[in-house]
Automatic annotation (TrEMBL):
Species lineage: Bacteria, Bacillati, Actinomycetota, Actinomycetes, Bifidobacteriales
One Pfam assignment: Polysacc_synt
Keywords: Cell membrane, Membrane, Transmembrane, Transmembrane helix
Protein name: Polysaccharide biosynthesis protein
Main location: membrane
Annotated localization: Cell membrane
A Gene Ontology term for the protein's cellular component: plasma membrane
Membrane-spanning residues: 5-26, 32-53, 74-99, 111-132, 139-162, 174-194, 215-240, 260-281, 293-320, 326-347, 359-378, 384-406, 418-439, 445-465
Source organism superkingdom: Bacteria
Membrane-topology annotation of the record: Multi-pass membrane protein
Length: 478
């Protein structure tokens, strides 16, 4: 498990670093309004990817790791169901492009969404490869593909600079398409080495309705994640004026998602690992692993969210420029919101690994009925800071309810060490906020050095408080 976490975290770190390289280029070479258009296209794609990716990937990972059915049967029928989902979203993007332009008050979006439609099939097949490797617990291969994809996305930079300098949005889209196709080809080559392992997996054929139910159950839950992480940007684009505000909000969203990207590495590993323990009848060990992963999340990921949240003004000014101070309040809320959302996903994956998915379904439906109206109302009356605060409030409630449900169904996953980590994060936030007030401007290198120092001091303090121990780290390898 430890190796899987290291692989997944390394992959996700490279993912968001390469993403920030791309956004640094776009944000500093394009007007804020144009950058907002790019952010809108990426946001819609992220929403669809979340639905398209996590349903198939998590379903494959769970079923292959539990070994209840023939692996080849699981893969074949998951691909068949994935084709249905791909066809649906392709039609939404291609034929519904004019509707996107109308709803988002920008007719230029019509063409861009038609081009974006061709990214859907490529992403759909890419995540199938990830799900197969996760199920086989070949986290190194999944991580490698997770490194190749974001690095290949940087091909958008030369495309924007040369052939598409007059139409940078298309350059970005084509760069993303190239990255997906390259990753699929490499993934298929690497998967050939595991074909014998897949053939050796005994068990009956899985029924297509079972595949559909599992995939839709995961997908329905990840709609909530997509709504919170993506729809707010679309609402800002649609109802908040002036147009530059969508660009400023895009900048805040990019940094707000750091903690979610990192926590998603934990999600990738925890579902197949705990599902394997539950499938083997080792439920007590599964609970221990869940508690350990909560402590690790609070110890290593929460401080990152807190540092970014507490120094939002300093970070945005150093990265984008002084104009982006307008979104400092939004970033303060979004950084915590994304951490809360990541923890919500983590907790629901623990529930799903114990074959308890009904709660996630109910949570998804309830959220669908409330989040979008709340986002629209707060954006109209309070702007980008208000909608970000709404996002933070919603995710905090989702996380709290999920914690309670895990305690009711499985066991409490909050240990004394977990509470100590939370207390330390609060102190870290106060110190960081004080620095942000006293020193309102630094260059990007100094900001990075400050963050490394604060993070190192925090980790050292948790080690002295015996929250982070050699026993904890070693246990993850078991």
């Amino acid at each position: 498990m430890r190796r899987g976490l290291i692989y997944s975290l390394s992959s996700n770190v490279i993912f968001f670093i390469s993403g920030y390289v791309l956004h640094f280029f776009l944000g500093n070479t394009m007007p804020a309004a144009s950058y907002g258009v790019v952010g809108t296209i990426i946001t819609v794609l992220d929403f669809e990817y979340m639905f398209l990716s996590n349903g198939a990937r998590q379903s494959l990972a769970k079923e292959i790791s539990m070994k209840r059915f023939s692996a080849l049967s699981v893969i074949g029928k998951t691909i068949a169901f994935q084709l249905i989902v791909i066809a649906f979203f392709f039609c939404v993007n291609f034929f519904g492009a004019p509707a996107f332009g109308y709803v988002l008050n920008d007719a230029s979006l019509d063409f861009y969404f038609k081009v974006a439609a061709f990214l859907i099939p490529a992403n759909g097949f890419f995540v199938i490869l990830l799900g197969i490797n996760d199920g086989l617990q070949q986290f190194g291969i999944s991580a490698l593909l997770g490194v190749i994809y974001p690095l290949a996305k940087l091909s958008a930079i030369p495309l924007v600079l040369i052939p598409f300098k007059d139409n940078p949005v298309v350059g970005v889209e084509l760069g993303f398409l190239f990255a997906l196709l390259a990753s699929i080809i490499i993934g298929l080559i690497l998967l050939t080495a595991s074909r014998n392992r897949l053939k050796q997996t005994d068990g009956p054929a899985i029924a297509f309705p079972t595949v559909a139910k599992n995939t839709l159950s995961f997908s329905l839950f990840f709609i909530v994640v997509s709504l919170v992480l993506s729809v707010d940007t679309l609402v800002v684009k649609s109802v908040v004026r002036p147009a530059q505000m969508s660009g400023y909000y895009t900048g805040a969203v990019n940094f707000g998602k750091i903690s979610y990207y990192l926590l998603s590495a934990f999600v990738t590993v925890i579902l197949p690992v705990i599902s394997n323990l539950v499938g083997a009848g080792k439920k007590e060990q599964a609970i221990v692993k869940a508690r350990e992963i909560i402590v690790i999340s609070l110890s290593f990921i929460l401080p990152i969210a807190v540092i970014v949240s507490s120094s939002s003004n300093l970070l945005l000014t150093a990265f984008y420029g002084s104009d982006y101070r307008a979104s400092a309040g939004a970033l303060t809320c979004l950084s915590l919101s994304n951490f809360f959302m990541g923890m919500t996903v983590l907790l629901n994956m623990i529930l799903n690994s114990h074959n308890s998915s009904r709660f996630s379904d109910v949570l998804s439906i309830a959220s669908l009925l409330t989040i979008i109206p709340l986002f629209i109302f707060t954006a109209k009356h309070g702007g980008i800071t208000a909608i970000a605060a709404t996002s933070m409030t919603c995710t905090a409630l989702l996380m709290l309810v999920s914690f309670i449900r895990v305690r009711q169904i499985i066991a409490s996953v909050m240990s004394p060490s977990a509470w100590k980590a939370i207390g330390g994060a609060v102190i870290l936030g106060v110190i960081t906020y004080g620095i942000d007030l006293i020193v309102p401007h630094m260059n990007l290198l100094l900001v990075g050095a400050l963050y490394i120092l604060l993070y190192a001091v925090y980790i050292g303090a948790l080690s002295l408080a015996k929250v982070i121990t050699p026993t904890l780290i070693k246990s993850l390898a078991q």
